[in-house]
Amino acid sequence: MDLVALTTRAPVAGETLIGQRFFTAPGGKGANQAVAAARLGAVTRLVGRVGADAFGPALRANLRAAGVDVTGVLTDAGESSGVALITIEAAGENRIIVVPGANGALDGADVARLRTALVGARVLLLQAEVPLAAVQAAAAAAHAAGVLCILDPAPVPAGGLPSDLLALIDILTPNEGEAAALVGFPLDSDAAVIRAAAVLHAGGARWVVITRGAAGIYWTDGASGGFQPSPAVSVVDTVGAGDAFNGALAVALADGLPWPRALAWGQAAGALAVTGVGAQAALPDRAALLARLAAR
Predict the structure, then answer these.
(1) In CA terms, which of 131, 204, 210, 229 is 20 to 30 Å from 156?
(2) Quick check: bond before 231 cis, omega within 30?
(3) Of 188, 243, 255, 285, which one is the catalytic site residue?
(4) pTM score, two decimals?
(5) CA-based torsion, 240, 244, 250, 251: positive or negative
């Protein structure tokens, strides 16, 4: 559950500020990406856990209302639901603290449920708000099932991503900060972005897409690649933009769209998501996405 405060600016250490607004909203990277995919028309299943608290039933009900199959989402009696403490500044930038709760307890039993969900699936979306061991086991299950695997490496695990995990990933989608953390140098120029993507590709990922906010994306498959600018939009809130990108990219590829078109879907979804407040509340549906693409 996202606990969101709107403020003119983020406080510095030891400072107390008066905010303008507070609200709660269902969130979490896995849930956001599942809702993004479902809103765009994909049959979507989520595997994970919520806690035995007031947030758990609300989170499951919200997912069902968005069209997500939650039979793979268990209630963990020993944990709280995951929460994200979010401040959103007037310029649209955000600062987030995630407390994983039940998300941090994912283990082999959850991966066993995933194997069932992979039957007939085309794409598996993974992110790093759950234990890395579970991510790696899930990627291995997708690889064995012949299912395309997309990993959003956020937040970047301590120690980075092991090479045996990267070897299981078809598409790696870090943002610039995450890519910098993974490769160990700042992405302070286009040349640095290209170099970082090459390093991540050489590490094992088949395709690398580095998302750069208003500057667009850079992608490579090792043999080719390029920069693509972002659509121009009025930014209200950047929370959930990456999740919108990943959800739309997954749906486009599951629908059999060619790579350039799939990237355009991701960028259009991300652009639409930043024009509203909140993560899931701002995720576009298929009609809005197609209208945005037609307008471009």
Answers:
(1) 229
(2) no
(3) 243
(4) 0.91
(5) positive
pLDDT grade for 208, boundaries at 50, 70 and 90: very high
> What's the pLDDT tens digit per position in 19-63?
999 999 899 899 999 999 999 999 999 999 999 999 999 999 999
Q: Answer yes or no: are the C-beta atoms of 204 and 169 closer than 8 Å.
A: yes
Residue ranges per structural domain of the chain: 29-81+102-295
Q: Going by C-beta distance under 8 Å and a sequence separation of 6 or more, which residues neighbour residue 209?
A: 171, 172, 173, 217, 218, 219, 249, 263, 266
Name the residue among 104, 151, 121, 127 with its Cα closest to residue 31. Answer: 127
pLDDT in tens, 102-146: 999 999 999 999 999 999 999 999 999 999 999 999 999 999 999
Helix or strand run (H / E) with residue 115? helix 108-117
CB 70 within 8 A of CB 60: yes
Among this protein's residues, is 76 annotated catalytic? no
CB 163 within 8 A of CB 204: yes
Q: For residue 44, give the H/E element and its range.
A: strand 44-51
Least confident of 47-51, 68-72, 121-125, 271-275: 271-275
First CA to last CA distance, the chain = 34
Position of tokens 């009025």?
234
- Residue 15 CA from chain centroid, whole number: 31
Residue 271's φ and ψ, nearest 5 degrees, are: -65, -45
Task: Return the H-helix or E-strand segment holding 125.
Answer: strand 123-127
